[in-house]
Amino acid sequence: MSEATKNDRMIARQRERLFYFAMCLAIAITVFAGFAKTFFLRPYFHPEPLVPLLILHGVIFTSWIVLLMVQTILIARRRVRLHRYLGVAGVVLAALVVLVGTTTAILRTDLNGPPGTPSPLTFLTIPLGDMLVFGILAGCAFWFRQRPDIHKRLIILATIAVLPAAVARLPLRFIFRINPLAFYAVTDLFMIPCLIYDFATRGRPHRATVFGSLLLVVSQPLRFVIGRTDAWLAFATWLVHQIR
Prior knowledge:
Elements: H1 3-40, H2 42-45, H3 52-76, H4 80-107, H5 120-123, H6 125-143, H7 148-161, H8 164-167, H9 173-176, H10 182-188, H11 191-202, H12 207-227, H13 230-243
Helix pairs in contact: 1-3, 1-7, 3-4, 4-6, 6-7, 6-12, 7-12
């Protein structure tokens, strides 16, 4: 292998590490900014404590973000064996994200909303849809753990799938007043760097990026179509009563 080829590969690896670290950092900052007042810095803004379920919810979701950052740093430092060991914890944590996220969404659904407002059961499709898409992408990422090019892209996209809750709490009310669902559009902006990175390094989008991005984008309006159907409202009513 020529010296020029070695240098090119080294530069490519450094570029890849920088990209994924930057994505993880941007996600972590967004999560902190979104939940600073209601979770991370709550004592400074709200005197009343959170209920145990919401504390558990916050701890598990924060742990996922922390693990994502740690795993990215381990790969950058070539600690592949430790990265794989922690991957087992990632599987368990991903399952807890789906379980606790779904349970919290259902238990926090207020069936007695103000008169004249859309049914809260319709909006239940938002968090449940996030959990479904996250579960699919994270599950596929773990399935393709022996294919780093697929694995790392799907893990990032799975994390983007659970960002809407944080984005919706950012100080962007001037945008959300125009369209309350604009937080999805803001969340989808995180997919653009993934596509740009693929074009810059491969000349075309990676199939994992295409699959994950399409799943995210298509699922978002589909949730509201499903959420307004009588079949969904009947099922969601039954589900909420069963969980409670």
